[in-house]
Design brief:
Layout: E1 10-14, H1 18-30, E2 34-38, H2 44-51, E3 55-59, E4 61-62, E5 65-66, H3 67-76, E6 85-89, E7 106-109, H4 114-125
Parallel strand pairs: 1-2, 1-3, 3-6, 6-7
Antiparallel strand pairs: 4-5
């Protein structure tokens, strides 16, 4: 059964919009993912180092940080460098998210289709880059 491969996959969602965070969390939990949500970036690195998520979904525009700078921080730390990241944004596009040396494993513009979100997540967890 296809869903059994993603049971217990741990996903961290960093999104300041509570409604979007709640929707993503509910959708992913209904697909058998274990989801943790943060609405600020302040404790993100500590949380990642403690929980070791299989994937981070991160908004670029956060009230206390730029997701692209957080990606650089994540990739620059040897203990977290390999954790895949899916970036989401209402303002940025795939062509202008590049900031520094590191690229996310995938990008989705808001508003996004739920099926597109799930397809990206499954693809990234399988090793694809979008």
């Amino acid at each position: 059964m296809a869903k059994s491969s993603k049971i217990y996959k741990n996903i961290l969602v960093v999104e300041d919009n509570h409604a979007i965070l709640d929707v993503i969390t509910l959708i992913l939990q209904s697909e058998a993912y274990k989801v943790t949500g943060l609405n600020k970036s302040i404790n993100m690195m500590t949380h990642i180092q403690q929980s070791r998520p299989d994937l981070v979904i991160m908004d670029i525009m956060l009230p206390d940080g730029d997701g692209r700078e957080l990606l650089t921080q994540l990739r620059s730390d040897a203990s977290t460098a390999e954790i895949p990241v899916l970036m989401i944004s209402a303002r940025y596009t795939e062509s202008n998210i590049q900031h520094g040396a590191f690229k996310p494993n995938g990008f989705l513009a808001k508003p996004f289709d739920i099926d597109d979100l799930l397809d990206r997540i499954e693809g990234i967890l399988a090793g694809k880059v979008y």
